[in-house]
Amino acid sequence: MEALKEALYLNLIKDDRWQYLTEGLKNTLLITLFATLIGIGLGLLIAIVRSTYDKTGRLKILSGICKVYLTVIRGTPVVIQLMIFYYCIFTSRIFSGVFVGIIAFGLNSAAYVAEIFRSGIMSIDEGQMEAGRSLGFNYVQTMRYIIMPQAFKNVLPALCNEFVVLLKETSVAGYVAVQDLTKGGDIIRSRTYDAWTPLLIVAAIYLILTMVFSHFAGNVERSLRKNER
Amino acid sequence: MSDNVQENVQENEILIDIRDLSKSFGDLKVLTNISTTIRKGDVVCVIGPSGSGKSTFLRCLNLLEQPTGGQILVEGDDITAPGANIDQLRRKMGMVFQQFNLFPHMTILENMTLAPIKLLKKEKAQAEQEAMELLRRVGLEEKASSYPAQLSGGQKQRVAIVRALAMHPDVMLFDEPTSALDPEMVGEVLNVMRQLAKERMTMVVVTHEMGFAREVGTRVMFMEGGNFLEENEPEAFFSNPQNERLKAFLGKVL
Asked: Is the pLDDT of residue A221 over 90?
């Protein structure tokens, strides 16, 4: 007990080392949040392009470009992508690591979100599109008012899962000098030569974040489905 | 529902003029050179064995299937011409599907008011009032705030019919509207359609309900192999069929 107190004091209290963790947590959340926004926005666009091609044969070239994008992004490690963005593309250091992280993780997540949305769109019965069109809605209006709301509801669990995955994936942001939560723990370890305590604390913080989020997502999902039974 | 009949359309005026309509899926010819006319107030019942092209014919009329040959003129406009405004055209043609195709994420009232509000730019209150009036006529006003999943098949199909009517169409297309229903629910849907026919709504009905075709139809058409082999007014059609294949078909289903 005395040893635990000692370890906590050494790793958290002494020299205000807890600030490495709070600063890191802030960056982790910042990257995750904005990368998610990029991922959902871009992913939605890609999904609409690809499913429009699948359903109608239009947008062939755009769909082809999207396909290449998905193949490359999903076929290479996110760490490599992150380093390419940091060391090759945004080489000027007016771009902070956090900014580069947001872009890299956002573009990466978009590829996965796109496939999630696409599976959601394709899972909606063709009769829904026909019913919308037969009332006089054009393709875009039918997508917007009829297909997408249903597709979104269907893919919500998968989207939440992707958010959790992204939150954990950002732990490699330290590769490009971002001081995220994981890096914060690293710094403490390098000061205190204690590996157990900071790593377990960092792991616990990730766990709490994902558990709280999953719980929240479950509630949203239930309330969305409530009316349909 | 009588207000759905546009006053500028003269009685017996040709609503849909179908000329040499053909449709193939790849090498498979489904419809071959069909020509016929549908006049205002007609209740045209299309019967025939499955796979004969009945549904494809109906779906060509509002271009849910793109014809591969021929012309379709709706109120004089060639809807198969390049650049024809299909979305505008479909507002005038209500369609009812075998599988109902209600929007499961919306209440019944939202199902009915979505298109009038977004497309006809109706005030929400007015659209809802009209929708409630339509629901009352089919005995479903207490279901307005329910979701489709909470309705029986017959109720869903009645909602699907009034959802189409809310757009004030000039013609209603029915694609086997009772085929997915339990037998005890067929009657309630046919009653609504019977009522519509009484109100002089122009209807094209693909159906297996011979009794309905005989009683309500103004004209019955027999399709097989992608063509209409016989058409007549119902009494003569059923009591004195000429075509051998129609005789055989009626012998099996009646």
From this structure: no
Are residues A114 and A66 in contact, defined by beta-carbon separation less than 8 angstroms?
yes
Write down the ipTM of this complex. 0.91
Q: Are B166 and B133 in contact (CB under 8 A)?
A: no
CATH number for the domain that contains residue A61:
1.10.3720.10
Q: What is this structure's pTM?
A: 0.87
Work out how many domains chain A is built from and give that number: 1
| Extended beta strands in chain B, E state | 14-25, 28-39, 43-47, 69-74, 77-78, 93-96, 171-175, 202-206, 219-224, 227-232
Tokens 């009032």 sit on residue: B129
Residue B1 is predicted with a pLDDT of 44
Task: Yes or no: say if A162 and A109 are a contact pair by the CB < 8 Å rule.
Answer: yes
Nearest alpha carbon to residue B196 among B6, B14, B11, B41: B41
- pLDDT for A4-63, tens place per residue? 898 888 888 888 999 999 999 999 999 999 999 999 999 999 999 999 999 889 999 999
In the predicted model, is pLDDT for residue A124 greater than 80?
Answer: yes
- Top residue of B63, B102, B105, B107 to mutate, by most chain A CBs within 10 Å, is B105
Q: Dihedral angle at the C-alpha atoms of B198, B203, B205, B211, nearest 10 degrees?
A: 20
Interface residue A140 vs chain B (CB under 8 A): no
The amino acid at residue B152 is: S
Rg for chain A, CA atoms, rounded: 22
Contact partners, residue B4, CB within 8 Å, separation at least 6 = B165, B168, B169, B170, B199, B201
| The pLDDT of residue B215 is above 90 | yes
Q: What is the pLDDT of residue A229?
A: 55
User: How many whole angstroms separate alpha carbon A1 and alpha carbon B78?
Assistant: 87
CB contact under 8 A, A134 and B64: yes
**Which 8-state DSSP code applies to residue A57?**
S
Count CB pairs under 8 A between chains A and B.
Answer: 63
**A134/B93 Cβ within 8 A:** yes
Domain with A159 in it: 2-228
Which residues fall within 8 angstroms of residue B123, CB to CB, at 6 or more apart?
A: B117
